[in-house]
Each structure stands twice: as C-alpha cells, then as structure tokens.
Amino acid sequence: MGMGKPQLDKRTRLIETAMKLAYRNGFRETSLADIAEAAHVPVGNVYYYFKTKEELGEAVVERRLAQFRARKEIRGTLHRANGLARGAIPGGRP
Prior knowledge:
Number of domains: 1
Strand content: under 5%
CATH class: Mainly Alpha
CATH topology: Tetracycline Repressor, domain 2
Helix content: over 70%
C-alpha cells in the first residue's frame, strides 16, 4: 500500500466534491449525479449518506463553517503568540 495521502471516506469525498462543484457551477445547477460522478461514487451511494440534495447542502455549509472557525481560532492563537513574543524580545513592542 502506498504512503500517499489517505483516501477520504465516501461521505467526506461527496461533501468536498459538492463544495467544489457548487463553487464552480452554483449549487442549484449542480446535480447529485454530477457530484457522484466527480467524487467517483455510485449515485445510489449519495442517497445512503444524504436523503436529499438539501441535506448534502447543509453538510457543505456545516463543513465550511467548521473550516472558518478553525482558521479563526488559528489566527487568534497566532495573534496571541505574536503578542507574547513581542513582550519577550528585548526592544520589542509591548
């Protein structure tokens, strides 16, 4: 087995693919069949994970919010660390 990037599970792959296609084509214009094909998942499996297109859309929004919150938290941590470093460096700004 290769040491490359681990393959995402089908549900995650569907969400990631839906995000990309919706960004490119718009959510309304992107069909579940389009998402399944691009994610290399049989269209029937889409319905196993998401009963409706709207349910998949909600998962996309939740994922984007989680990504946004994670980035915001990282920025806050870096900002605090930068402030601490300034105080610890002689001649650094308080």
